């Protein structure tokens, strides 16, 4: 066998172990008995130790030095493996161990502080996390920008300079649109009580409507919805609330977008570097376009109203127009995950600017709460009432995920570009959506984005699908057209 063949055999085994480790995490969130937590931690730790040892094995570097690519697929495989190996080798082993131990402790400290609305209790351990992340970033950056080095883990090729330009164009228009929407009369939230078993039956129907293959996946309940796995075993979770069926419906559609991406990747790439979504931003583009541009569109909402009536009976909504307004209701709130389309990206930009300042050393952990509250009031027009609704609401920083947040907005931007291109290619899309027929748009996304997996870099993936480089304008135009019609002022 050639060095390339040996390397790819090693990668397939490592990826198979990673899938098993992911299954342990899925089980822990869905079915694991409560008393098994300590043993599961030991099992997961053992798996991660084996996987890390394989990824940092010097033999991997020797194969990389000798391997030769015969085609574009091999070149892409080597690009991914080389990037992963070189980044791992730049971070000292003792630093990686220290980060793992600290973030485990920090997550517990965050949960306790959040429960007590006491940011001051969390600030010291957050300062420790930031110090180690700065050290890690310095090792990765090799003299370059610290934040960009962390961003590379989640969105290869993206830089803070590109994000700054993109967000600078978005923020004033989103602030203005938010002000217009909140100045208008918002529809009331959906009333009534909704059986949770019926919600899950509807969720399974919707998953299949959006193209999720249940023979290679399953839908379960969890506290926090997520998607897990790749290839022929891709699992999703959702959540239910008797007072809010939309939570279940749109959490399901969102996770189906992630899962369909993984299920649609060329099977020849399975258990290899190309066999997963290429980046967090591109992954988020699939979940957001499924959830928002398709799932919250006026034609689909008309169909969904009929399905909800057939499942729950009279839900107290007069007609499809009223239902569409309720689904797309713009409302005041503090929580990112509960935000509407208009305000969601403002939540992300706030976090992006603050975490950049923390990594740059321009903002101290002790001053984060004040900085957060000042920025929130400037963008949203009202004050944060407590820490759990402010800088303690997200777990990301406690576990060291600096550079992750902007990929959520990148996903929205990419989804805006894809929606623009898809609608040009599918002139009958609205008629299909009104019938609850998602076959054409999901097939377009499979063909133009999902099947490629990691073959291309993230921005190239979107550029190839859309015929133009990613830009915020399609998303902004979509949001302004949609919400100015809903809230004419």
From TrEMBL:
One of its GO terms (biological process) is proteolysis. It comes from the Bacteria. It comes from Roseovarius marisflavi. Its cofactor is Zn(2+). Belongs to the peptidase M32 family. This is Metal-dependent carboxypeptidase. Transmembrane segments: none annotated. Keywords: Carboxypeptidase, Hydrolase, Metal-binding, Metalloprotease, Protease, Zinc. The lineage of its organism: Bacteria, Pseudomonadati, Pseudomonadota, Alphaproteobacteria, Rhodobacterales.
């Amino acid at each position: 066998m050639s060095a390339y063949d040996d390397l790819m055999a090693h990668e397939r085994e490592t990826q198979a172990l990673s899938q098993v480790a992911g299954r342990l995490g899925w089980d822990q969130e869905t079915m694991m008995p409560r008393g098994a937590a300590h043993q599961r931690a030991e099992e997961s730790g053992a798996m991660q130790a084996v996987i890390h040892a394989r990824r940092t094995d010097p033999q991997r570097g020797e194969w990389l030095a000798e391997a030769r690519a015969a085609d574009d697929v091999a070149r892409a495989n080597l690009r991914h493996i080389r990037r992963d190996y070189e980044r791992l080798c730049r971070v000292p082993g003792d630093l990686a161990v220290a980060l793992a131990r600290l973030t485990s402790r920090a997550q517990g400290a965050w949960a306790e502080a959040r429960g007590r609305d006491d940011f001051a209790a969390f600030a010291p351990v957050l300062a420790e996390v930031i110090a180690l992340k700065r050290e890690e970033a310095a090792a990765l950056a090799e003299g370059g920008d610290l934040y960009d080095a962390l961003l590379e883990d989640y969105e290869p090729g993206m830089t803070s300079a590109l994000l700054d330009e993109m967000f600078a164009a978005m923020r004033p228009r989103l602030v203005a649109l938010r002000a217009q929407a909140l100045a208008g009369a918002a529809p009331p939230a959906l009333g009534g009580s909704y059986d949770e078993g019926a919600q899950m039956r509807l969720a399974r129907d919707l998953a299949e409507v959006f193209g999720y293959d249940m023979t290679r996946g399953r839908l379960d309940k969890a506290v926090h919805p997520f998607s897990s796995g790749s290839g022929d075993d891709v699992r999703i979770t959702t959540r239910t609330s008797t007072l809010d069926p939309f939570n279940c419906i749109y959490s399901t559609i969102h996770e189906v977008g992630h899962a369909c991406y993984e299920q649609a990747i060329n099977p020849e790439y399975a258990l290899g570097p190309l066999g997963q979504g290429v980046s967090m931003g591109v992954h988020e583009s699939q979940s957001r376009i499924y959830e928002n541009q398709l799932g919250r569109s006026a034609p689909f909402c008309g169909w969904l109203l009929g399905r909800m009536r057939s499942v729950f009976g009279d839900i107290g909504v007069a007609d499809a127009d009223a239902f569409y307004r309720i689904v797309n209701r713009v409302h005041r709130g503090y929580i990112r995950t509960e935000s509407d389309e208009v305000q969601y990206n403002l939540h992300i930009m706030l976090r992006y600017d603050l975490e950049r300042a923390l990594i740059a050393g321009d903002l101290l952990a002790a001053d984060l709460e004040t900085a957060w509250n000042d920025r929130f009031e400037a963008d949203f027009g009202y004050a944060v009432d407590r820490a759990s609704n402010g800088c303690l609401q997200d777990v990301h920083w406690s576990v060291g995920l600096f550079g992750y947040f902007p990929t959520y907005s990148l996903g929205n931007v990419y989804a805006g570009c894809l929606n623009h291109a898809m609608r040009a290619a599918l002139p009958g899309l609205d008629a299909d959506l009104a019938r609850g027929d998602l076959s054409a748009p999901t097939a377009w996304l499979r063909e133009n984005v999902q099947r490629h997996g990691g073959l291309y870099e993230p921005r190239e993936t979107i550029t190839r699908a859309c015929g133009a480089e990613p830009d915020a304008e399609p998303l902004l135009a979509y949001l302004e057209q949609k919400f100015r019609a809903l809230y004419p002022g």
